[in-house]
Amino acid sequence: MSQLKIKPKGKKKEAKALALPVIREDAAGIDIGATLIHVAVGPGRDEEPVRTFETFTRDLKAIAVWLRTVGVKTVAMESTGVYWIPLYELLESEGFEVLLVNAHHVKRVPGRKTDVSDAQWLQYLHSVGLLQGSFRPNEAICAIRSIEDTYCFGIRSEHVALPYGTTSGVTGASGVGLHPDDAEGADADESTIA
Known about the structure:
The chain is built from seven helices and nine strands. It has helices spanning 57-69, 84-93, 103-107, 115-127, 139-156, 173-176, 180-183, and strands at 4-6, 18-20, 27-32, 36-41, 50-54, 74-78, 97-101, 160-162, 165-167.
């Protein structure tokens, strides 16, 4: 059972160390980057408690297999950019409890300089119950958002290329009446221009 020693502020002579007990021994921490993923499990769960994986699908599946093999049931990961989404969804579909934490809240603690130590720190904080998960909408809402993002992609950009010219924005006279088919190069007629 690993414990963190925290010394309260005040007089150094009177300070006593506080120990935080581990309440989730089945916790893991994951630090996700654009090309590498660092995964840490608790001490004693594996000979190599911190492993590094690439971000390909086969590697994401290997993470899930390894975590299951070492007895992990719950995972904490930082919500960095969009890199966390595929692993989050895979682990959730595999039955893991996945806690998505705000990177800014975790980074405020000094002393961590590498991605490996970030993964270990996330694992420790999760194991002692100090992390709170961010809101993640259910699967149906995520699917609707994905469809909406795909549908509106062409008209969100600043300049939209059309077969008959370019519009300088989506709020002007030529941009308001755009239909996504127009942005994809479909034949346009005067009825599609506002």
